[in-house]
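Wait, mind explaining this?

_____
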Amino acid sequence: MREEYKPGSPEDFDRLYRTAYPRVFRTLTAILADAEEAEDCAQDAFVQAFQAWSRWKPDAPAEAWVHRIAVNRAISQRRRAKLRTVGELLRRIGRPGHGPDPADAVTNPDLLTALRSIPPKLAAAIVLRHYHGYNNREIAAALGVSERTVGTRLLQAATKLRQILEPSFSLGSAAAFSSDKGESLAKD
């Protein structure tokens, strides 16, 4: 069920913040691979969103709109950031415990390193799909691209991640990364 928000309403923005912040933060943590950077980026994104709140148009879900702002800020931040060594990355985030939650895979240091090595737009699509469970339409709204572009990015990201991670890590079949309805990306 989609939350209803009124553009410009401070109470609705507060509700959006409480609802969306944890997911936005986790997305940014996966993209930036640094919790402190992710927190700063999330806060900046919500400040930017609040400043534009009266201009938000409810044609897309508010959470997707905030995700789009946050992901764009993270992409810009990541472009500016110098590459970090794997050792420094591991020191910052530590090794995760082994839990039954499949979302725990995103905290795998090898996966985080691999996500940082692929283009940010591809990493964002993978994180929104497999960590947050967004469908192609929601990812498209969050990233401001077409659903077809989302499918292409998911396929490209899966291919690149498999090349980097195999055989030590499996993301599942290629079909899991393509369109929601099993559409072929080659057809028009």
